[in-house]
Structure formats: C-alpha cells, structure tokens
Hints:
This protein is of the alpha/beta class. The protein is 32% helix and 22% strand. It has a domain at 527-656: ANL, C-terminal domain (GMP Synthetase, Chain A, domain 3, 2-Layer Sandwich). 5'-O-[(S)-ethoxy(hydroxy)phosphoryl]adenosine (WTA) binds at residues 271, 316-318, 393-396, 418-423, 446, 507-509, 521, 523-524, 530, 535. 5'-O-[(S)-ethoxy(hydroxy)phosphoryl]adenosine binds next to α11, β20, β26 and β27.
Amino acid sequence: MSVSWALPFDEKVLAGGGVRSQAADEYLKEHRVTLQKGAAFWESVASELDWFEKWHAALDSSNPPFHKWFVGGKLNASYLCVDRQLALGRADKPAIVWEGEMWAPGLPSESRVLTYGELSREVNRAAKLLRDVYGIARGDTVGFYLPMIPEFPILMLAAARIGAKFTVVFSGFSAESLAERLEDAGARLLVTADGGMRRGAVIPLKETADKAVAAAPSVRSVIVVRRTGLQVPMKPGRDAFYEDVMSQIPDDAVVDPARMSSEDPLFILHTSGTTGRPKGQVHDTGGYLTLLHATMKWVFDISERDMYWCTADIGWITGHSYVVFGPLLEGATTLMYEGALDFPQPDKWASVIERHGVSVLYTSPTAIRSFMKNGEAWVAKHRTSSVRIMHSVGEPINPEAFRWMHRLVGRSSVPFGSTWWMTETGGIMISVLPGGTMVAMKPGSNGFPIPGVDIEVVDDSGRRSEALQRGLLVIRRPWPGMPLTIHNDPGRYKEVYWSRFPGFFYAGDYAVRDEDGYIWVLGRADEVIKVAGHRLGTYELESALVQHPAVAEAAVVGVPDEVRGEVPVGFVILKTGVERSESLKEALIRLVREKVGPVASLKDVIFVSRLPKTRSAKIMRRVVRAVLVGKPVGDISTIEDEASVEEVRGAYLELQQEVSSRKAGDQEDNGGSPPT
Ligand code: WTA
C-alpha cells in the first residue's frame, strides 16, 4: 500500500499548485469502470451478504426519485449481524466491548464484553420481549432514547429481528424534540434509561422521556433500562424496568428473524433543516446493509480481527451505521465507549485505545481539536501504535488537526481520511480507501467518491465545475443506502433533494474538486449548522427563541469555533419597549436548551434592532454569517435596510471584545454527548 503526501488544500493549491498522483489516476480509472457496470456493480457487492432469497431486480427506478434496491430480495439485519456470525464460528469472539465513563487509573474497570454468542442470546430474548410481551409486530415502530450502553444495539437488533422499525432520538435532545420525533415516526413503545453518565454527572433521561411521552400519544409503553441507579418515578401500567420484564424471558428464547424485503424500512432517523419540522429519513434494509458492507471493507479494511472504535453516539447516523450495523455485519469487535472522551482526564481516549488495543479508529475533527487543545503530553503517556487505520467524519477537518492526529496516533504513516457522507446517504460516500486503491492523502481533503457512487461538484446550472472552482455537491444516480423517502412526506423528499438539479440528489454542501480530482467538502450551502459535528437546523432554534414573550424576531447562525467547528449564536430583535439585559439573554439561552435540548446550546445571544432582510422580509442569514466571519457580504442590493449589516457587525465586534475580556477557562459543555 503506497501512501504518500501531497500539498494541503491551502491557497497555493487553490491557485493551481497540485501534485499529480499515479494512484489517483489509477483509482479514477477503476472508479469509472464501476460506474459503467451500473447497478450490476452493486449486485456483486450485495451478493457477498447472506440473503434468504435473491432479488429479481437490482434497481427499480420506475418511480423516481423513489428508487428501490434489490427488489424481491429477502434478508434480515439481525440475522446478518448475529446468526450469520455464529455460523461463521464467531460465537466466542467479542462482538461488543463496552466501557463506562467512570474508569480512571486506580479504579476498578467498568467494562462489559458480549461475545457474539451472548449478543445472540440477548437479541433473541429482547426480540421475544418486544414481540410477545409488548405485542410489537412487523412494521411497528419502536423509539429509543438511550445513553451509550450495550442494551442500545441489543434492542436495535431485536427490533430489526422481528421486522419492526426503530427510531432513535439523540439523548441530548429535549422532551419537546423527543416528542415531536416519536409522534412523527408513530412510535408505540419507547425504550429509555434511568439516566446516562456524562462527565461524572447523571443526565436524567427518564424525566425528559416522561415529559415527552405525555405529549406523544402514540407511545403507550415505556421500558426503562437501569444504568445509573437514579430513583425514577414509574407510571403503573405504562412503565417497566428492562431487567424486570426480561427476567421473565428464558435464556434460550429463540425468535426467528423475520424475512424482510430489501426495501422494507429498517429505521427512521430525523434530521433538521432551515425550515419546517425535522425530516424523518427512512432507510431501507438491503441497500443500506450493502453500502455498510462495502464501506466497512473499502474504507476501514475491516476484518474479524479488528478492535474497531467509532467514537460517535448511536443517537446520530454515524453511530447507527458505524458503531452498530457496519462492524457487526463484518464480525469485528465494536468498542462502545459511554461518555466524554476527555473525562475524567484528558487522555481518556488514548487510554481506551491502549487498554483495548484499538486497531481501527473512526472519530471527528471536533474530538481531535479538543485532544490538541489538551496538549500532546497526554497522548505520549499511552501506547497507541495498535491503530492501523483512522478516519474522521461529520465536518471538514482542518489540515492542522489532521496532521497532529496523524503524527501522534498515526505515526505519520497510517491511512487517515475524512469521510464525507450524511444521514441521507446512509453510509460513507467519499473517502480514501485503504481497503482498495489507496491514493495519496491530502490533509483536509475527502478523497474520491467510493466505487459505484457517482458524485460530482457542479455549478449553479448543474454542469461539472471547473477544477478549483467552488461548486455544489450532487450525487448523480441512485446508490444503495439512499433514503426511501421522508416519513409521511414524500413530496418534501422530492422537493428538498431532487428538485434543484432534476435527476441529481442535492446534498446541500459546497465543495471543490482539485486538479487531481480530489474532493474537498467545504461546508453547508444552506443554514444547517454543524456543532461539534452534530447537525442542527436553525429552524428549531429560532422557533424556540420567538416563543419568548420579549422576542419579536430571531435569526440563528453558526459562527466559527476553534474546537467545535461552529457554534450557534442567536440574533434577536426584542419587542418594542422591552429592555435588553443580561438576565434576558440568559433566559433565552435557557429557553433554547429547554425547547430543543442541551445539544442546541446557544453560544450567545446578540440583541439588535434590525436584521438584514430581503424586500420580501426574509432574514438573510447568509449575510449575517458573512459579517460574522469577516467575509465580504457580496451583493447586498436586495437588502431592504443596508444599515442593518453595520449594526450586526458592530454588535458582534462588541461581543467579541466582551468575550476576550471575560475570564478564560469556561468549561466546554458538549450538550450531553461526547464530541463526536
Ligand atoms: C458534513 C454525518 C466535510 C456535511 C455523517 C454534510 C462533512 C453533513 C464530512 C451531514 C466531512 C460530514 N467533511 N463535511 N468528512 N462529513 N460532513 O447528516 O456538511 O449529521 O452535509 O451526517 O455533515 O451531517 P449528518
């Protein structure tokens, strides 16, 4: 495997530097062949899975954009992740290694190991519980609001086993956000925990779940997993502890895996955007698992010998695909770490790598930047040379963070990429491929579209952009793992993703292709904010702000942050006669946390008397953002009131001065989740 270095994506490269790489040309040639093969290429990948029945059509595109993959094929996700692994002789091999947050040198280890045999037993028992005790049937929906504990994947697999779909809500979301998502998905049952551990404190998940369920009439029962021992009120007839109801289920319970159609939904996961309610992305079974199988091999070069650690929370797509289904599908060991990567000491993450012998590491730029901030002495304390492949995900990685991690953990030699994908794509779409033709790495770049995936950077008219010109990222043909639709709203699915460039999937990201064909995703072209890699829509945050009686109007924009990539800041116009005050500011920040969840903590609120708007009174967040990052605001002839730009600029500068004069050392709050 040849891994060489090329220029980072700095101004020099943009100006036309570039280093031609032999492997890149070779890769692009191979890639073209996979595209020429079309759906047949993906058939060869899919046939490496173990189907109950083979498909009769690889791709049904009769009703675009609602494409269906492997139509007629029958399979089951739980069968593939569990039963098949037993059949391959992996019963005694660790499937899940879990480590709790509280471990520190000198303390007893807080760890659980589940072999594939034990996983199979627990998944079968949980499936029996769902089906026979709770009456969950094929096609029903089960909601999960859980911390990172082994019961989480067990229950996801159990739902999949009986043909129920699941919908996960990240544990940093509020009761209101949880209720909205559960209702939208039509969840009948909610599984939560008595609490989750976060930086040594207990997050009262059950309390939040109770409020949510009161507002989500579809939910009739609640199962509570004991994790923290926190005393929680239990509603008779509705709530039960997992261990109590599971004690009725024999150890040798067997539930046959349901024969699911390839295009049956496996799960619904909500993403939020700039307008409207969160969109429930519906993922299928056959296409999704095929993409995971392919990417686990190509991107992670996975084998059953690997100790594989993806640091994401299962509450997000990365956790669904690459903590749970991807690694288990391949018979690897998936390491689940419960809490903050730097708690109780900044070297927790490096000590996890050392103690468990992690060989493949999948993490995020935010996590890496927080490690950097703590200093390299913490890394040097640990042996991390077991790591043979690393990747990052969730946001663009700055070359400094890339180089730091590559030098310290990657010994300046292991393959390391920045994998681009999104909730909608189901799995990785752009990456360098240590398990395939490995190209030279360029720090900060994403690499190339994976085989069989047709990604392009296009200009406003949908034509391939010139090299080094900023354009928009599109996927030009269906791929396995694509959404089936937006739950309850197929029209919106069509409108949001398939209407801007008819026939192409519009990803909503800005990107550049350099002269060697490498893709560099630059960030969102819409007003979606990535906070520590977590995807937040401005809409929900703004809706929360305007619910306050003092607020007339609000705009939320992402401003650059050294560690977390971006953080949301609220610009607020108060109602006439309302006084600006620190306490009002705090109340507004609190309100957003309450309404949307700790994950959506505003970094600040800035009071202004006007905001840049178009003549049709639409707030121009793009202009606000440009002002904040000190970029030219571009054409402002459509702005109704140009003075508003100056006011935003002034208010922001004032805030920055205030911040720099404040005492340093504010404790970062990750909003109830590890930096993922
Ligand atoms: C961003 C996360 C640059 C991008 C899997 C995308 C990235 C959004 C990268 C999706 C990367 C993800 N480089 N940007 N390697 N990976 N993004 O749905 O803006 O939470 O549109 O899925 O994250 O976020 P989501």
